[in-house]
Amino acid sequence: VQLSQQRVIDFENRYRCRDGSYRWFSWVSHPVVQEGIIYCIARDITDWRKVADSLKNSEAFMESIFRAAPTGIGVVKNRVLAELNDTFCKMLGYSREELIGKKATIVYPSVEEFERVGREKYQQINEMGTGMVETVFVKKDGTEIDVLLSSTPINQQDHSVGVTFTALDISKRKQTERSLYE
Fold it and tell me: Partners of 96 in the beta sheet?
């Protein structure tokens, strides 16, 4: 018996079991030249499909939060901007392309402020798992805004995986506080 040099046929399909449940199978078929027979190998991939579907749903859920949030959300990896929602970009007047891949210093008025925020925030993260700091960001047009920055690592043991953050513009609140103080 010799296998054909023709293409291998592979596909997935779903079967209904006697108990009414469904199982997914992945098939690989090789036609045999002389006998007109097709040999098939089937693999039950039901569990894999469930995990894949669950992951898709989870990603869609997180993406919807990312898009819908009225506050800036992002991810930094080694303090480089890796992911940002539209709210964050609009808050600062930048496009996503202008910020992704840039060191986070781009949004701070000075390297000293960037370093201060990093020290305070990462000390809090190491002690409590999350960090919250008030700071100042500089918009693309040069104006400054007061921001409440909250961060938590994606993986508590390995911060290089990334740190998620939210950035809330608190400029109006800070101005009100200053006015009341005066």
Answer: none
